[in-house]
Amino acid sequence: MKLEIERKFLVEVAVWEGADFSSAEIRQGYFQSGEDYSLRVRIQDARALLTVKGQPDGITRKEFEYEIPLEEAEEMLREFCRGRIIEKTRYYIPWKGFTWEVDRYYGANQGLITAEIELPDEQTEFDRPDWLGREVSRDLRYSNESLARCPMPVK
After folding, report:
1. How far is residue 91 from each of residues 9, 86, 94, measured CA to CA in Å?
2. From CA 91, how far away is CA 26, in angstroms rounded?
3. What pTM was estimated for this model as a whole?
4. What pLDDT sits at residue 20?
């Protein structure tokens, strides 16, 4: 088990365009989750993960993550996550000692772009890139699980 401490922001500008940042294609789906946890399966390029996350306490929550066979992840997405799947491209953008994960969503969340930064603790300070918009760390509508259930496309 690890603690996940992250802050999430909306992104106003496509910061990766014309740049050579590494990226990954992600498809992830959510099972029926309990009141105090979420369970997801993720396929990221050719790797598959099963993840259990506790409810957030501020910007911190518990996370358990396990690598699983790709074929089983595909089957789980088909059989157990129908209607609760998000698709996105994740860009890894280094910025002043941290790596920002910038997600560009497709499908039902078309046009939405978010950026997350993982921190060693809640008190860690960081410089905000000028392409960040409003912080949505505590706005549960922007959690990936919520976006899978209630999409928020940007027009």
Report:
1. 14, 16, 10
2. 11
3. 0.92
4. 82
Q: Which residues are marked as active site? A: 30
90 assigned to some structural domain: yes
- 13: domain range? 2-149
Rounded Cα–Cα distance for residues 89 and 136 (Å): 19
Task: Decide if 116 contacts 100 (C-beta within 8 A).
Answer: yes
Does residue 155 form part of some domain? Answer: no
Mean pLDDT by 10 residues, the chain (155 residues): 93 76 96 86 97 91 97 97 94 95 96 96 93 94 95 88
- What 8-state DSSP symbol labels residue 151? -
CATH number of the domain bearing residue 66: 2.40.320.10
